[in-house]
Amino acid sequence: xxxxxxxxxxxxxxxxxxxxxxxxxxxxxxxxxxxxxxxxxxxxxxxxxxxxxxxxxxxxxxxxxxxxxxxxxxxxxxxxxxxxxxxxxxxxxxxxxxxxxxxxxxxxxxxxxxxxxxxxxxxxxxxxxxxxxxxxxxxxxxxxxxxxxxxxxxxxxxxxxxxxxxxxxxxxxxxxxxxxxxxxxxxxxxxxxxxxxxxxxxxxxxxxxxxxxxxxxxxx
Length: 220
Known about the structure:
With 220 residues, the chain is α+β, with helices and mostly antiparallel strands. Helix content is 30%, strand content 29%. Strand 4 and strand 5 form a beta hairpin.
């Protein structure tokens, strides 16, 4: 591992070890709302992880990172990093990363590209969807997407109401291992054009990229 990237990993380990690990949904969303940071998002817990990283890493890392084409990476130290959150105890062990072209450009510039993945044990709201209704009311009612979904009589997904941070994985992608990642097709834009490919990581094969694992003790 090159010296500059190793310094980033050391800083990340020291700062992220101090993150709070129990994220109650309502309290976390209200904190995001107070900071005007992505508090309307259904996957609030993933954005709360990004919010916490910004608070704990500010001054040692740049937010956001570099921009390539239409893609901005979440943060940059020596190189760019993506922030991701993934629910554990899931049948799907795949984690969608970032745009293939932008990641390759970042890798070409620095020789290495990083990812910081939060693994969380999540809880869902009850069948009466009280948490979902609370969040919708906080936003001022149903969004246009939710209204359109109701006209299609599509079933809404259960909302996550609590997340416990179990582990943080710090990954390194380089010219030697990047080809071991698979890719994910995003579908098409509203104009019918295909969306750019994204890299995808199988967490069962994470050891190929893992440089640091931060384990927390609050999850059984």
